[in-house]
Predict the 3D structure of the following.
Amino acid sequence: MTRNVPNILVVDDDINICQALSLILIKRGWNVEVANTGKEALQKAQVRAFNVALLDIRLPDIEGTKLLKLLPKTTPKMIKIMVTGYPELRNAVEALNDGADAYLMKPVRPEDLLITIRAKLEEQQQSERATEETMTGFLETRAKKLLENVRAE
């Protein structure tokens, strides 16, 4: 298992929610950055790869569902978890269709948040391992074929 400490981006316009979520996550030993607008989140995501982004549905400058599509594709694939105080079926369906990996309601219970993040991080690590194994297998096969071609000449 990778020993790297996950980087988590908390995006919410409510400073108190950002502080509360940050404390919960930092207490687990994870790296946390906060953004209070979609623009700030995009700027931070351009500079640093985040394993997880916790996104509010309603931000002052953009809907969280739109932000889902704008966040850069990173390696490992950024896990996007919508956290909302506006539980509407339309929002949940739209968020999941637009690439959200999970959808949580405010007020978020710390246990639910941590369980969700841990499960998604484990999926992320498994996906990375599978990709590494596939690439290793491909490279080994390619190297053998190249070596066979060199010997045949």
Observations:
- The chain has a mean pLDDT of 86.
- The chain is about 55% helix and 15% strand.
- The CA atoms of residues 114 and 145 lie 46 Å apart.
- The first strand starts at residue 7 and ends at 11.
